[in-house]
Amino acid sequence: MLISPPPTWQASKTAVLQGLAGSSLTGPWRLLLLGDGSPTRHLESLSGIPVEIELIGMAPENDCPTDGSPLPEEVAELTAPLLRRQVWLCCGEQTLAWAESWWNQQQADTYLQERDQPIWRSLTSHRAELFREVDGLAQVDAPWLEERFGFPGPFWSRHYRFFRGGKELTVIREVFSPQLETWLGPARTRSVRTSPASSKTAKP
Fold it and tell me: Domains in the chain, ordered, with CATH?
């Protein structure tokens, strides 16, 4: 398991819930990061290639490495004992995102029986109704993200919850590769990143 990448900047939850966060983002990136659509479907639609999951690991939360950075506060709303899952999301040879999720262990056994399958496919395999609420927007950085994505950080990240029957089912954090600018255009309204470079992007 990897240590969760620390934020270099993050929006307040109030700003996210009110739709005021990420004012420097262009329209397509705002839809990706703050919309309630499926990232799996978005990545497949953009790349034209099915999303494949590279499972990094699944482990009890107490066994996961940490640098002391706080977890999303919504994780505390899940019923212990908790399990954490980490994956890379790949379309062909391109790694377009990294994700981690927190689950009650019993619910993980129920909903993640095919653990190399994207969460969205697992949760919707029986066409059950789900509600997604985006709770956080941030920029994060870590050397292992830069190495895998092939771009310098920081990287845009969000976290959200899935609800089923009005109850929290899981908390999911996603980090997206700048490679998505190939299809979405620049993430920032006044900043364009077209290729890997040695300089860091400015904070929002």
Answer: 7-62+77-184 (3.40.1410.10)
- Provide the token pair at 116: 């190399």
Positions of the chain with pLDDT under 50: 191-203
pLDDT at 71: 92
Nearest to 193 by CA among 9, 50, 22, 29: 29
Q: Is the pTM of this model over 0.70?
A: yes
Taking the C-alpha atoms of residue 101 and residue 156, their distance in angstroms, rounded to an integer, is 17
- The residue among 131, 129, 137 whose CA lies nearest residue 18 is 137
Cα–Cα distance for residue pair 102/37, rounded to 1 Å: 19
CA 50 to chain centre: 17
Q: What number of other Cβ atoms are within 10 A of residue 133's Cβ?
A: 13
